[in-house]
Amino acid sequence: MNKQLHQSVTTQLANKRIVILGIGITGLSCARFLHHHELAFAVNDSRDMPISPGDFKHQFAENTLVLGRWDQALIAQAEVLIVSPGIDINEPTISNAIDKNCDVIGDIELFCRLSDTPIIAVTGSNGKSTVVSMLNYVGNALGYCVQLGGNIGLPVLDQIEQPNVDFIVLELSSFQLETVKSMKALAATVLNVSDDHLDRHNTIDNYSAIKQKIYHNATYALFNRNDSLTQPNSDITQASQLSFGHDSAQDNNFGLANIDNAPHLMQGSTALCALAELPLQGIHNAVNYLAVLALGKCAGWNIPDMLASLMTFKGLAHRCEVIDTTDGIRWVNDSKATNVGATLAAIEGLSPSLQNHKLILIAGGDGKGADFTPLTQALTQHVDYLITLGKDGRAIASLRLPNQTEQTIHVDSLPAAVALAKKHAVKGDMVLLSPACASLDMFANYVERGVVFIKSVLMTKEAV
Q1: CA distance 290 to 149
Q2: Where in the chain is the domain with CATH 3.90.190.20?
Q3: Mean pLDDT confidence for 343-357
Q4: CATH: 3.30.1300.10, 3.30.70.3490, 3.90.190.20, 1.20.58.1480. Which one for 321-463?
Q5: How far apart (Å, rounded) are the C-alpha atoms in residues 439 and 365?
Q6: Where in the chain is the domain with CATH 3.40.50.720?
Q7: Any idea which fold 16-105 has?
Q8: Is 246 a catalytic residue?
Q9: pTM of the complete model
């Protein structure tokens, strides 16, 4: 046990009545951490059986577990409430029970109070998993010891005792940022803001304000010039600011410019690299590359060395992932596109590569209360055939023009969508699964949805 960390933990939490809300992946990591440091706690989860009571008792000895309801009496007694990201503390059953003096935090907040490891923090509606994975890949390739955590990888409290860490890269969701107060990131960014999780955050302005919390106390604040909702609010931060975007850049900011009719990554007027030299194509990925370079620069990383390592980064599964087939059709699995902004980025980023070939889009699922109308222009201009499915598939289909209804159809399953796409696609066409929706109406998660898509594509290919 790290004695210095143990002393800090006990100084902050000893003799406090601690309650963990939720016993999923994050809640379990919090329980392990507290138990490791010999601190008593209780766990409350509204689900009937997220964990076996016997397993809990075996792991956590005399600590209390309450399942099947929110225990208002238990919550009311808490002096420290550690909330898992998936739990909405504004739900009346919870919020009405919380004592006004209770310290409401999450695992990220607890980590920030206990660790002095330099943090590179990333949030945004889309692209954050790609950006943090690139940063982790690049940082380690440059010889640094870099951890990856937050909304991806291992929970942060499971990593807090790893020695000799140079940086931790945190992917942070709006749910996690709700309870973050003490983070002092070396570099922080909001990549973009689009309708997502409005079933919890109610308005885009509230959602944006929560995202902006990432800039609080940061040394460097990096924002997307093409998205005003990412611009740091002066009331939140006095950090040094740097920007990136798909337009031309001034000074030391990062952008794009055409040189000899080819798009290049730029820092100010300095050309860094032709986009064609990098493995991930599309304007949306160009912006991701620029964000990585800007964040890395703020961490003191060498730009030429970063570019060299980015040339070997192949991307994430289920994020604009090209499926290897022999039928000449470009099947693209973008199942991780769980909101409108992600699908819009995929369509606009990939459609320029099609030239005279068709784009067939498969979309739909649980829209989580999002406004689909920002997709209208992209569907009209770039999508030749639209196949929808799931709870909100018909709402997406309704955005098509009257003269496009014959090229729009709703189906009952993803395998049916793939089979229909195969009938309409010829060599050179692209079939893009980019749902603009969550998957929970039909699948366990976006990964299962992507796997089903891949299997359906490969089975269709074999049958032809």
Answers
A1: 21
A2: 321-463
A3: 88
A4: 3.90.190.20
A5: 6
A6: 16-105
A7: Rossmann fold (3.40.50)
A8: no
A9: 0.82
- Decide if 202 is catalytic: no
Residue corresponding to tokens 């010889």:
143
Catalytic residue among 126, 197, 253, 297: 197
Question: Among residues 63, 151, 333, 339, which one is catalytic?
Answer: 151
Share of the chain above pLDDT 90, in %: 82
Q: Which member of 44, 63, 126, 128 is catalytic?
A: 128
Query: Which stretches of 57-137 are assigned E, i.e. beta strand?
Result: 64-67, 80-83, 103-105, 119-123
Half-sphere exposure of 199 (CA within 13 A, CB side): 10
Fold of the domain built from segment(s) 110-310: UDP-N-acetylmuramoyl-L-alanine:D-glutamate ligase (3.40.1190)
Q: How many residues does the chain have?
A: 464
CA distances from residue 299 to 60, 116, 293 in whole angstroms, order as listed: 39, 15, 10
Q: What is the pLDDT of residues 363-404, one digit of tens each?
A: 999 998 888 999 999 999 999 999 999 999 999 999 998 999
CATH 3.40.1190.10 intervals, the chain: 110-310
pLDDT in tens, 176-231: 999 999 999 999 999 999 865 556 556 888 888 899 999 999 999 999 999 999 99
